[in-house]
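[#protein-structures] MJ: dropping Trafficking protein particle complex subunit here for a structure pass
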Amino acid sequence: MGKNTADGKDILEYLKDSSNYPVSIRFGRARLSSNEKLMLASMFHSLFAIGSQLSPEVGSSGIEMLETDVFKLHCFQTLTGIKFIVLADPRQSGIDALLRKIYEVYSDFALKNPFYSLEMPIRCELFDQNLKSALEVAEKAGNFGAGS
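AK: finished. structure tokens for Trafficking protein particle complex subunit:
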């Protein structure tokens, strides 16, 4: 977060204090706000719909990857129409496997939860824990990095 930690402490003061060691530092872009995520998802949904209609291939399922110089946006659409989107570094590999794992976690811990309603935010601790675990496993395997 620039010169401050995520909780607002000055990074130099934090590093001077020996009680904070060992330190784990992760570099990456600032996280998107909820509004930015919603805006990105709604823009991508529109592009996805236009792409599937304009595709010269009959029965096209839409955009699976959108590549820029700075990031790649990967999309996995389920048979029921739910889209999972991951932003990743352009050099990252293994995102397709990660998307399938995220769908597996979603189907196991969100869809099977009797208190979950479709198209509502997922508020399930088991889902959060297993999603975090899947991301950590993918990151340790070297297929997926912290900037995604």
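MJ: nice. Strands lie at 65-67, 72-77, 83-88.
AK: one more thing. The radius of gyration is 18 Å.
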